[in-house]
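Q: What would this chain look like folded?
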Amino acid sequence: MSENIDFVQRIVTWIEEKQIFSRERKSNEQRALGMLLYDAGLSYEKAGSFTNASHEAVRKWYQKGKELFDESTEKKRRKWIAIDEKEIKLNGTTLFI
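A: My prediction, written as C-alpha cells:
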C-alpha cells in the first residue's frame, strides 16, 4: 500500500516541477490520484468519483500529464491480432464472422 502512495507522491512532485496547473481548486494529490486511477483502467467518471471531481476535470488532468504515463508504458508492434469470432445464423446456415 505504501508503494502506491509513494507513486502518487512521485506524480505530485512531477506536477509541481512542471507547473502544469495554474489554478488550485483541487490539490495536486487529488489530481495525481485521478490521473493514476484513469491510467490504471478506471473510467474518467469513476476516477472522478474517487477524487471528488468531475469526469471532465479528470480528463483534462490526464491530458495535461499524459507524457508522464506515456514514458512508463512500452508500446509493442504486433504482427498478429487475435479476433474473437462471431457466430450468426442466416437462413438456417451457421456463419462465422
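The chain is about 55% helix and 10% strand.
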